Amino acid sequence: MENVNPTRSELLYRRQQIKLANQGMDLLKKKRDALLREFLPIIDETMRLSLRLERATADAQAALALAEAVEGRTVLRSVSFATKGEVLVDISGTHVMGVPIPVIKKAETPIKTELERGYSITGVGARIDQTAEKFEEIVDLMIESADIETRLRRLGEELQKTNRRVNALENTVIPELEEQVKFIFSSLDERAREDHFRLKKVKKKIVARKRRD
């Protein structure tokens, strides 16, 4: 076996490596299990938000089509140009099992009152207000989804990385070290037998020489 020196010190070194590799693998497995416990509920939450966002988008599109049919495209375009405002978010950070994860939260609700939207409330039908509110609900859900999907992606990446490390230790590193230990032990055992055989030959020669003398 290449790059393996069959000595007792090397045997002890390889056995220590196996011990450390097993300890590392156990820690990584515990981390993987903990990440998985965090990860699975987030999948459910992501799917729930995705369905809510899909329904909200369909409702907003239907409301927009109805408002356009009732109020006319020109009025809608005029209202859209007059609309003002911004969506503020707070971005901070947290750690889950040592994994840094951005936290995205609403600084304030994106759902506004009629007076806050910027267009004149006189001469604008209720359907336009309803349509605006439904699109604001989409923005609200998008912020919530951005937070949960970021968490899902980061934990998923760390879970894959941890799993690859566990597999590498379990299926490659530790088996290779164990094979090296077997090789060193076998080489030392064979060397011991050869030394014993040589000693027996030397002893026989010494005994034969004494008899001749």
| Content of β-strand | 5-15%
* Second-tier CATH architecture: Orthogonal Bundle
N- and C-termini, Cα separation: 47 Å
Low-confidence stretches: none
Secondary structure: elements and pairs:
Blueprint: H1 8-71, H2 73-82, E1 89-96, E2 99-106, H3 126-212
Antiparallel strand pairs: 1-2
Helix pairs in contact: 1-2, 1-3
Give a quick precis of the structure:
With 213 residues, the protein is mostly helical. It has 3 helices and 2 strands; from the N terminus they run ααββα.
Describe what you observe in this structure.
By secondary structure, the chain is mainly alpha-helical. The protein has one domain (8-212): Orthogonal Bundle (Helix Hairpins), CATH 1.10.287.3240. The protein has 3 helices and 2 strands, in the order ααββα. The mean pLDDT is 85.
Relevant terms:
two-stranded antiparallel ribbon, mainly alpha, 8% strand, single chain, Helix Hairpins
